[in-house]
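Q: PUM-HD domain-containing protein, please. Structure only.
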Amino acid sequence: MAPKSDVGTKRKLPSRSKDSNTKKPKYEKRPPPPPADEPDSVSDDDFGDLSDHDEDGGASLSGMKTQNNGDIQSKDNDGKTFERGQTSRESHQKQKQLAQDRKANKPLADELTRAKKLWERLRRKSHVPKEERDKLVEELFAITTGRMKDFVLKHDAVRVVQTAIKYSTPERRKMIAKELQGTYALLAESRYAKFLIGKLIVEGDKEVRDLIVPEFYGRVRKMINHPEASWILDDIYRGVASKEQKAILLREWYGPDTFLFRGTGEEEDAPTAELSVILEKEPGKRAPLMKYLLDLTNQLIQKKMTGFTMLHDAMYQYYTNVKVGSEEAKEYMEMIKEDENGDLLKNMGFTKYGARLVCLLLAHGTAKDRKQILKTYKDTFQLMSTDPHGHLIILTAYDTIDDTVLTSKSIISELLGKSEQNDASNIITLANDPNARLAIRYLLEGASKALFDGSRAGDLQLLEQIWEIRKTTSKKDPDTRRKELVAALSPSLLAAIASSAEDLVATSFGCQLVTEALISCTGDKSEALKAVAQTAGGDPDAEVEKGDEESEVIADFPSPPHISKIPHGGRMFKTLISGGHFDRESRKVIPCDPPLRFADILYPVIKEHSVSWATGPSSFVVLNLLEADDFSHAGELRKTLKKHKKQLEKAATEETPEQKAAREAVKTNGEAEKVVKKGKKAGAKEKPVGNMGSKLLLEKLGK
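A: Structure for PUM-HD domain-containing protein:
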């Protein structure tokens, strides 16, 4: 029989007996070999020629270290050596003293020590009285004045200067800024001193800013690539520099010629960073300028330094000056999309011109390009919706992506949430955010004046540009696209109104969203309409009751007034009763389909207190009920109002609380009173006193 193979089996070593002397000790020490003729006694002189390691590899004497001169030093457990008769503690004290001596021999050693002691006291703001702090600041300035440049270049001393700036007067800040002139570019490259520049600019004024910013001229290309200086440069560009200073800094991205030769005459007084203007005046330099700009932006993208506002502004200038559909434009699109992890696109979504560039990429791109851009922003849409610039990317995606299923799954589902509870809370948050509300209401009401007022004129101009571009890049009809997206949005929106109507109608923005949703959404609206009507319940004139025990607790959080007392509540009910928006051109209400018939839903809720509504701030709600064509209880409401005609007459003639408050405000404000008198002299009509809705109700009842 063939022997079994040992492959794959573990061989068992022969065991040793306990008395075996072949087992190696855990730590083996080999003594030095004895001399050939070992003497009976050994003298101290016999060790004179021994070194740390002899030729045979023997270890040195245990716990001892010999020197060539014969002196012996002991070694502690940590391996540190110290002299004979000296303990480890004494050795550490000696080393500490040597370190202190070295510091004392450095320049400004005494001044730095005193300044750091003052700083230790000053930085504990709550523990130092104002009088004492003023004295400490005076002493600190006495030490640092004239030596600022020496202090700021030391990592432990620059904090002292920052504290001096914090507690200094404007005059002293200017003094510090002037003393540091010529060093700001160097300070920006320092890991610690760069914060001093930020402190000076934040605490200083325009004069300090104008001392610091010009020192970065001509150094942008070098500093934007520096790991420390790049961030302080971009912070100054984004938040501090004036319009002219920003233009000068951005021009350096186009090449050294555009910075050095900015033209003469008017352009010298007001330099521009618009690349189109520069290329129009010097068309022969287009190729080198565009190449320089492309190389610099690509260099930062390759280094993963993609969070700079300057970079995004420069990229926008490049893309808007290439021909649409050209190879340059296609290659630039690919460069942006191929950025690893999509950090470039994510960062661009939160700056002004970065977001605008993404909008243009969505408009000019193919369906594949748009899908890849949307994928990059996954899990970011909620944050983008609240950003002053990022929400424009969402609106552009609504207007340009033909695949509405993709848009609803990628954007709408993330904005609203995954469950009904999350839907309601998210919608309440989005409805009251000045930017995020556009991400929902834009689908419901389009580019209305309520959404795009004067402050958003630039946003509307961008969207109008997108609408022109999509005529050649999108195939789906805009109205069809919007209706499909509204259908995807409607179930979650109506469910949130039905479950959280009280929270939504508590604010003006919430009332506007509820109104637009009930008019524009598709599907069953009955539960949502009932929930909104229930918010009108209760006596409008009843005071909020507070228990004795709870009064102290809820004193800081008073209960909101009845919805009939707030203007946006009355406007919401008026529009819902009308069943649509009023069209100024046709001078009539355009009803929604199917009709809401909200008048019959609301009346049973306010029936008991209809007179209070008719004589209060929301009197027009009752007037709209009488004028509604689909209101089936008009006769009953007329009888109720006629019985309380005296109350209507009183409300129609007496000054309302709002009018009284406005009159008192005019009296206390002298300037406002002058304006009122001036208006009277010019023949301006005075506003009538009394409840206008009650007056119109009386006229209607008299017919």
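A: Brief note, in case it's useful. Residues 120 and 160 are 9 Å apart (CA to CA).
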